[in-house]
Design brief:
Number of strands: 38
Distance between the termini: 71 Å
Shape: flat
Number of helices: 26
Helix content: 40-55%
Strand content: 15-25%
Structural class: alpha+beta
Largest sheet: 7 strands, antiparallel
Length: 957
Amino acid sequence: MNNKPVQNIKIEDTPVVSFSADEAELYLGVSRQQLQDWSDRGLIRYEQTAKGNRRYSKNEMDRFVKWHGYGAGNGDVYSKVNKMRLFADLSEKMLEKMNPEEAIKLIFLEMMNSTGCTTASISLFDEVSNSLTTMIEFNIDGTEMISEDPYFLHEYPASERVIRKQERQLINISDQKSDSAERDLLERFGEKSVLILPLVYNKMSLGVVELFDTFHERNYLPEELAFLDEMCGLIALSINKTQNVKRIETRNRVIRLFLNTADLMASAMDLETSLSIFVQNITEVFNASWSELYTYHRDREEFKRVAYYQIPEIEKIMPLTGIAVRLPDDKLLSNCLKSRESATYYLDDPELEQLLIERLTERKEKAVLIVPLIYGETDIGILKVVESRYLKRFTEGDRRLVSAAAKHAAVVIYNMQLLNETKQRNAELSTVLDVAETVTSTVDIQSVLKSLSEKLCEVINVFSTEIYYFNQNRQQFERVAETADTKTGESRTGIYKAGDVPEFDRCINKKTPVSSYIDDPALDKKTRQEMIRWGEKSNLCVPMFYKNQIIGITCLTEVGFIRRFSEADIRLVSGIVAQGAAAIENAQAYTREQTERARLVKLNKRLSALVELSGQMRGLISQDHLISILARVMSEAMEFRRWIAYIFDPDKLSFQIAATYGSSNAAKLKNSNHVIPTAIFEGLISDATMISHSYFIDHMNHTWDDDERFHIPMENLTPMGDSEWHHDDLLIIPMIGEKGQLLGYIAAYDPADKKRPTHEIVRLMEVFTGKIASSIELERLHEQLSRQAVTDGLTGLFNHRFLHERIVEEAAKAERYQTPLSVLMIDLDNFKKYNDTYGHPQGDKLLKGITRILLAGTRLKVDVVARYGGEEFFIILPSTPADEAMVIAERLRISTEHQLFEGNPGQYDVKITLSIGIATLPDHTETASGLVSKSDKALYEAKETGKNRVCLYGAGA
């Protein structure tokens, strides 16, 4: 009880006065003895003067008057019980006749006035976020405050206990029995006392009522607490009614939203109007500040905002529509597109990235719900719902409802976009058909190309068109047709090597049209210089592919002004160019047919060789034998005069040379134990050209460094003169097993015909190396299964079966060479208790730890360590007499005793001991079975004499 003097203390500039016993008696109208009894019981606080007299606080008197009905001159007073009952009856009638929210306020104000507290609040509980949000808060002066920002229960332990246990809790700042964290909160907010009462309806916690006293610590009468509990029950009933009404209103708004969305789908309105109505419905249904809808344009990697609605009450944030956002520039939109799932972002989220916090702050967004618009596998756009007034918490139900509405919007957008695109493409198709008729009317290649370039200039209305044919052999682009010249006075050569023109490279690599504009700040320096040199303002380069094979490039140029090529322009040019590519391919078909006959003759020869050599690979054969067969295939069938086989070591993450062909003896000796890091192959492959599933290292695309030349030794190659194959070219074929595992690489060079490898040759090599890889994989699997048959699955030690075979072998060997043979039978002390205490998974970890100790304390490749069964181990010590076996066993016992093992996960605080029995041949027995039996008896003696000891058979510990 706090009995500090209260006289002369100023509270909000109003002096707190105190009464003497006579004055208090007059004020209350009760006897002096009754006052003393109440103050002795702690119901009324007082101060004691120097003379020993008691003085009573006027604040305490006021509270007591309210609850007991006492007062000077009051002759007809209700008892406090009748007064509480009367208000409870009135409260029930208020709930029947009044608006629930108004009734809650009246009941709440009576609770506050009756208790005389300085501040009181009602807070509602949100189970999803585990937080409370203040519904009503009053100060002693009658001021009402409303705050919708939640506070989380983990920061307020007393409120959390009230919610979970549904029991009231009183906390006074000087009460040492109270939670220290709660007392710190009282001190932080300048409070002396708080009473927290649960709001419970139908056994569900709806929230809490908190009654604060800024001036005094409090003790409530039982009658007060009973009355407050009853009032909290009425408040909870009213809150439940209010929430039911809100739930019905929300459901009705959602139904209206889906009906409106369905109407939009069936209406004949334009897309912009439909989407504007849609985002307005979304904003109003979810009571948000605004909503935005973006469509996604994959070709430009860009979002375009096509609909926006903001409630009138808040200041306009941005223009209505037409905002374009590039994919990397907005992480909220790009993250949603990447995940294809809805997401929420809150400004107070401590785990939110700083960049996103800055973005939300800049746009005054406190809470954001973002939902993808998807139709089938097509990304249509993004719907974004924003709250800027307070930290609104979107529920899982909100996310599901907005996502469902977004699906309907995606259908609307997709259908309308499809209709517009269909109209546009019908017009384009008509033009493409006209061009197709023109270019297929002749078989002369030059006439086809001339007609194609002229038609493009006419249809697209550009200054000039140039067509470049790609020469695969020379790896260069050659101009074969044009319609105009830039008239700069300088003549173009019309021949460019692959890599000389950045536009061509981008066009071929991406397999899509590439447009370049002189005013583009992102334009690369080389392209800008070329455009200035030839007076070009706009370029459009379109690749010519036929069945995924590059034929050439068509370039459209404008010199008079900056011509922006639209999506429709690019689509139309692409369609016409595709017709040109087909015409070029048809003109070259006859030549390919002639060369095909010669190719088939050679192919038959190679296939015959492959069939013959494949027959030699039947059954399980060694890796060396497989490599020798591969050597014949590479030299005889594929006609590569030099190659190297690299085998991958998954444990060391590196490659080792398994075989070389065509190299000198000195080079073979040097490469016999050569280890190649994986980074070497990764660097080569990153610059490689794919041929089928293999990698062609082209000297035009890759410059060899010293490290690569050291690890990939292509020796004694001189320049080959005027041939397709260069001395710095290399073909790398991966060896892939049937399970898709990389087993190694074949690096081939120095072909007999001095030509670059064709797709067909590479495919044959891949087929055969695949067979080699599968055979190697099969052999390794056989070895692995053989190894698993004799090893324990948990510890990796030899198993019981292998142990009995090996001990018979070692006993026979010891007898033959007259050498001693000792064995150790080992058991973990109290292992069952360990398992019962910490669980079997921890027991498995313990067995693995013991395995490491046993292996570390024995001879590698000499001693045999096996798991005998359960927690028992067995060690065979060849050529080891009994006294040495005792030393080894004692060393293992001590090592184990001094080692701490993991008990509970992550806690290394448990000690384990070993009991070991030893038997030796020929000292104790002359048979293998005798060794097992005698060592087991010695182990039994070690156990019986106290455990954690070593016993030699017949000699004790």
